[in-house]
Structure formats: C-alpha cells, structure tokens
Design a protein that fits this description.
Length: about 170
C-alpha cells in the first residue's frame, strides 16, 4: 500500500495505490482510521475532514490466503497554523516610534507577513518597524501554512501622538 500524498489538507482527496502481490486477489478492505466506513475498492481515494494523524490498514483476501498491512500514523492532515504576536518597546509615543514585533506559534516553515497599519508591510518572524506619523494603528499578522492562513489583527495596537511643541513666552 502506498498513498500518493501522506501530508494533506482537510478535504483533500488522497489516492491510495494497492501494491498487493497475491496470485489471485479476491477482495480488499481499507480502513482509513478516521471512523469512516471501510472501502472495498482496489485503488481507493479518501478525503480526511479533520486535522490529525491517521493509521491506515489494508486487508487483502486472496484465493487461498489473506494478509493485513497496517501503517501506523501514516497520513497527517494539517491544521491551520496557530499564531499570535507581541511587541518589544513602547506601544505609544510621540513623533517617531520604533517597535520590534515578534510572531509566536507555528511560524517555523510557514510564511509570516505583517501589515503595520500605516501602508507598510513586512515579512519574517521578527521585524522592526518605525512609525513616523501620528495616528492609531491596527497591526495585523498573517501566518500562511500549507493548508490555511491564520490572521491575527490587534486594533489600535500602536498609538503615535503628534510632537508636543516647546513651551514659549515673551514679555
């Protein structure tokens, strides 16, 4: 038994190749390990609906014998990446504000994109961005995995105030 793909997304159709070598095959019984009804096709397809790791068992009945092949934890169905972020340094300030952002969660091996809320975007698990105009900024992290994208927005996360003018008087 062999699957064309062993790491898939939920709902993705997998083609299983039956490599049985009985002289006369009379029947096949596939158990995909996800609670779905068994399949009796020689070369079945199957779609897993939930993230997780699944074992697959093939029972082949020949004319005079039968055999069972079980592959433990054979298929992995990917879940959406987990994601969050934090910032180092002040989140509020006057005039120019430099902030370092760090993504956490399933960032390794996935694409990590940032929208800083001021028209600038960035990429990478850790980024430094400088805000140069007054305003309240929503920062958004997007982690793009093999099957899905997780987006984490933080509204009004950064607030930059206009610079205070210096005190002055005359007599």
């Amino acid at each position: 038994m062999e699957a064309v793909d062993t790491v898939v997304c939920p709902g993705e159709l997998i083609v299983f190749n039956n490599k049985s070598t009985f002289c006369i095959d009379e029947g096949w019984l596939w158990d995909f390990g996800d609670g779905s009804p068994p399949d009796m096709a020689r070369y079945p397809t199957h779609a897993y609906q939930s993230p997780g790791t699944y074992s697959v068992t093939l029972t082949v009945q020949g004319l005079f014998a039968s055999d069972v092949l079980a592959r433990t934890d054979y298929i992995t169905v990917s879940a959406p990446p987990t994601a969050d972020f934090s910032a180092t340094g002040a989140l509020t300030g006057c005039d120019t504000l430099t902030v370092e952002f760090a993504a956490t969660g399933d960032v390794a091996g996935n694409t990590v994109n940032w929208n800083f809320g001021d028209g600038v975007i960035g990429q990478g698990a850790t980024v430094v961005h400088q805000y140069t105009s007054p305003g309240s900024y929503t920062v958004e992290l997007s982690v793009i995995g093999p099957c899905d994208t997780t987006v984490v927005p933080k509204p009004a996360y950064i607030v930059v105030s206009a610079p205070v003018t210096a005190a002055d008087f005359s007599a």
